[in-house]
Amino acid sequence: MHTGKDLLRMNELAAILFRYGFADVIRRLGLATPIEQAGKLVRSPVKSDMLRMGTAERLRHSMEEMGPTFVKLGQVLATRVDLFPMDWISEFEKLQDQASPIPFADLSPIVEAALGKPIDNLFARIDPEPVGVASIGQVHSALTRRGQKVVIKIQKPGIRDKIESDLRLLDQLAKIASDNSVELRRYRPVELVREFRRSLLRELDFTIEARNADRIRKNMRSLKWLTIPRVHWDLSSPTVQVQDLIQGIPARAVEQIEQAGLDRELVARRGALAAWKMVLEDGFFHADPHPGNFIILSGNRIAMLDFGMVGKLSHNRREQILQLTRSVVLREAEQCAGVLANWSDGQPIKFDQLVSDVEDVISQYHGVSLAQLDITALLADVTAMVRNHNLVLPSDIALLIKAIITLEGFGRLLNPDFDLMTEAEPLLKRVIRTRYSPVRLAKSLSLRALDVVDKVYAPPSVPGQGPHQDSGIDPRHLERLVTRLERGQYRQVQALIVLAGFIGGSILLAGKVAPAPWGISVLGLLVFLGSAGWASWLMFVSRRFLREWE
After folding, report:
1. Residues 283, 215: contact at Cβ < 8 Å?
2. What residues are labeled active site?
3. What b-and-e string marks burial along 298-321, b requiring 16 or more CB atoms within 10 Å of the CB?
4. Which one, of 533, 544, 538, 526, lies nearest residue 496 by Cα?
5. Count of CB atoms within 10 A of residue 466's CB?
């Protein structure tokens, strides 16, 4: 324990768990005796209504009573669809900050200390009544000295110390749980708390959320119907954030949207298009796209709010997602299982059984077009399979899956017939075409060849040091091999161009593109015959290349 306060806080948390019927968990962790020795433990009997609740619901109520750190923890756990079944995820999603408002007089010193000036010099008016209250911050509407309508998000006093104390306790509890409970160990408590710590400490720095908003606004500037509030950086700091006030209809208010004459179907489609663009093209996405984070504006425009939780997909991760999509479409179970196995974080798996289970999942969706694919059902099947094999998805993939499921619910709220994959289909096809284009392929092959060449000319490693010891390969032979590989890759690119020529020539011939005497397109015939000649030459060269290879 860091301080005596930590010990008192541990006693308080244990009392809440006892009250909600989790005494067995405390005892299995071996904490009951130390806690009893530390202080007087509250042993209130379990309420009768608690006995009628399921385990997940009781846990949700206990986390709400434990305070903001544990509410945030539950919201993070709601993203781990690979670890918890959907009934637990649903309970975690219900976690709400039960925070009471703080008088603005207690917050004004924080604003002045953060911005270095008296409030009257910065704002013409600030509404003392908050427009939003959360566990970490409180939001007030205001008017700047320049006459701009804004909202101010202010971090509550003392919240950082309280959260850091709770995080210390969670670190200890995670280690105890991992060491003492096989059942709890499968949830990877140490890794989960480490991820949660990083996420929550970033959320305490309001400038990170502001930078997220700026980045997404820049990425989405081509979508003229999408609005993201502008951050006033001259009035913002790690504990205070000022951004434009957005006035419109909350996305949850479906009846108001209908009364305003807005097109709910178009709004749902636009929301999905924005989300898919962030995921597939930008690799930086809003990870909590629930209706509360969207405001509907006139002209069927959309405003997106709250960028405290974002997901990042590296280029390599997006490549893996495309490989999974291709594997499902082509029913390549082994390739799909290979990607999942790479996500296993080194955990031992039964690969043959995983391949068999993947085949079962893929077979359920065989013959289903992309537009007809029930993405929520597919993701539920995949995550259930992942849990059955005790695999843990990378946090960015888990966050993506949760965002997709949440987005599907948002779309169905506005339009009961909404289909998320229908909106994704054009963008997904464009991304796949780009990935497998001849230019992209040639660039990839060239880069791989350069990697091999770099290894050839790299200085030799010191014997006995590092994993790469003397391989016994003559660099001169390896250089010849690289040359042959480069020539082979060049032939592959040429073959793709020839294939494109055949297709183009056939289209010109079929379309009878002028000039076309006797109904035969001269241009099409020339392209077709030229491609045929080039193909013949490539076949001759390829035979010689194979003989050299042998």
Report:
1. no
2. 288
3. eebbbbbbbbbbbbebeeebbebb
4. 538
5. 8
Strands (DSSP E) found in 147-206: 149-155
Could you give the CA distance from residue 410 to residue 358 in angstroms, rounded to a whole number? 29
CA distances to 174, 178, 352, 458, 497 from 6, rounded to whole Å, are: 15, 21, 48, 54, 68
Task: Give me the long-range contacts of 31-34 (CB less than 8 A, separation at least 24).
Answer: 31/176
Compute CA distances 74 → 88, 361, 404, 464, whole Å: 10, 29, 19, 49
What pLDDT does residue 470 have? Answer: 44
What's the pLDDT at 483? 58
Stretches where the chain sits below pLDDT 50 are 1, 37-43, 461-477, 545-550
Tell me the residue type at 258: E
Q: Which two tokens stand for residue 485?
A: 């590989």
Q: What is the pLDDT of residue 38?
A: 43
Q: Would you say how long the chain is, in residues?
A: 550
Query: Across-strand partners of 286?
Result: 310
pTM of the model: 0.68
* Tens digits of residue pLDDT in 444-467: 555 555 555 555 555 554 444 444
What is the distance between the alpha carbons of residues 353 and 349, in angstroms, rounded to a whole number? Answer: 9
Q: Is the link from the previous residue into 515 a cis peptide, with omega within 30 of 0?
A: yes
